[in-house]
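Much of what follows relies on a compact textual record of a protein's fold. Think of the row as the fold of the chain written in a discrete alphabet. An example makes this concrete, so a full record is given next.


***
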Amino acid sequence: MTATQRSRVAEVCRMRALEAAGSSVRVWYLPGAAQPASLQKGADLRHAAIAAVLASALDPNSDDTVIDHRCASCGGSDHGQPTLRGRGELAVSIARGGGDLVVALAESPVGIDMEPPNSADAVLEVAPRIMTDVEWRSLEVLPAADRARRALVLWTAKEAALKAAGTGLPGGLANVECEVVEGRLVAVRLLGPLRHLQREQWRARTTTGCRGVVTTVVLGQGPPRRGDWR
């Protein structure tokens, strides 16, 4: 990929940076980058697009940005949490949904997730199994017109938090609790078997982009907190 192509991909869209305690997260949205002609070609194209974005952010003159993966459950290197080879001080998170890609880069644990609006029904169907009592009550009191978006906010925040914690979905969506006040995501907590991974502070931001795609980024601050959350 040429420097011009790299620049074009990197500047497609930049979400507002989330800043806390001297750290920030940079997020890029790549529409259409997850729509492959074939499964293998799609994986290659996704990695090329992601590497292009990150290379542009870190060193525009470099073509050697390498993304590695490691699964926390099985140790596999073909899936799992992404890392940047030789850049251990940086955290990266990747999500795809509705044919689009989103990439987050930060100097502290970060997770990102995105869901298109047409996935709301599926989320609501499994909500009783993956939502905490607090989250379920916040859904029940909403009018039907608002319930779909709130479900996507909660789902994306939960998955983003699991990515930031380093477990991914195997950590269990029910082990994350998100608090929403007046439509704004204000708190993210890790519960039960994940509470030892709880950070001193989690910062989160949710945006609704073009075509109604809901994206949430979660940024961890400080060392893991040893207190018992539940």
Notes: Helices lie at 3-10, 39-58, 120-130, 133-140, 144-165. Residues 1-17, 226-230 have pLDDT under 50 and may be disordered.
